[in-house]
Amino acid sequence: MNKKITLLIISLYLLNGGAKIFAQIIDKPAATVKLDKFEVITVKQLNGKIEAIEKRTKQKLSTADRKKFLDLLISEILIGQAASQENVTVTESEVNARIELARQSGGLSMNLNRKLTDAEFKSIVSQSGLTWDEYLEQLKRAIIQQKYVMEKKRSFLENIPPPTEMEIIEFYEANKTAFVAPDIVRFKHIFIDTRNPQSKDARDKAREKADAIYRELQNGAAFEDMVIKYTEDNASRYRGGDFGYLRRNDAARKQLLGKDFFELTFRKELGEISGVHQSNIGFHIIKIEEKIPFQLLTIDDKIPPRQSHTVKDEIRSQLLQRKQAEYYQKALLDILAGLKKKAEIKIFDNNLSY
User: If both were cysteines, with which of 84, 205, 244, 282 could 113 make a disulfide (CB 3.0 to 4.6 Å apart)?
Assistant: First the structure.
């Protein structure tokens, strides 16, 4: 290589802060952003993120969506720099609290009667196509953004009007056919896992173990004692083996457990202890704790299975959440409009192949 060119590259490398900037020199910029510091979004970075999204969604992004995504990355940089200027940060305890909230809501949405275990939650994150570190990074950025927006628009966001009675009634009337409670069953189980290892010999031994447990039950052993002694479902071990609620229309859990086992739980009688049955994940001995039949719900009916709030309460909550999201979006867009006026932003359309 020409000596002068070599010296020029080295000097640029040193002036711009090392390998990260050197990578940007040999890559084309998609956009540059500066509020208080200069940042580059390279074509390689942009394409990599778009490919990851397309892989997760199994859909190609349109040209318009690609442009929106680039604008989203620019907006993230602007919010990040603005938050940094005002010393808005996120602590480890805030991240952990948000994860705990997600585990709790995840367990409720899956009718588990408990929060998701750490392993279950990480598995769901993995299934979304994100690594755990990527998830944590996204979560930290989201928390910082929310804290910054709340700080700048507190009065606006704290004065969101609640849904009116008329809005609630109109929503119910427009969607009343959706307010049904499917058949629901809740059971306890003694579980022997066959997911790892999956050899035939291991499965045969698991079956033998489950059969031996069932014989103990037939000889008078207490179901709850057998749960504590033998179950391999650690999340339910000290809750009597409570698996939680299954809804007849829960396609995800039907796929997880397998159609035959899933349907079996609805055929069993209340209080009945089954023999040994196999699902996609292992062997179970189940005891039916609760059965709730299908029903249409009026606006004042309590919602099964927990019966803790009515359809009206649920609609009110949904409409409030919708309003909160709308107000937050308005606040965010208003903040971004102001930041974009102050920032130096350049998009290199010639480098982008839409």
Answer: 244
- Flag whether 241 is in a domain: yes
User: Which of 5-19, 47-61, 141-155, 167-181 has the lowest average pLDDT?
Assistant: 5-19
pLDDT at 235: 86
Residue 292 lies in domain: 182-296
Q: What are the beta bridge partners of residue 276? A: 285
**Residue 340 in domain:** no
The C-alpha atoms of residue 14 and residue 115 are separated, in whole angstroms, by 50
> d(Cα 316, Cα 18) in Å, to the nearest integer?
54
221's tokens: 């052993």
Segment 43-71 mean pLDDT: 91
- Domains in the chain: how many in total? 1
Is the predicted pLDDT of residue 25 greater than 80, yes or no?
Answer: no
Cα torsion through 82, 88, 93, 97, rounded to 10: -60
**Residue 188 sits in a domain of what CATH number?**
3.10.50.40
Least confident of 26-40, 73-87, 105-119, 282-296: 105-119
Per-residue model confidence (pLDDT) at position 90? 96
Q: Determine, yes or no, domain membership for 237.
A: yes
Would you state the pLDDT for residue 197?
67
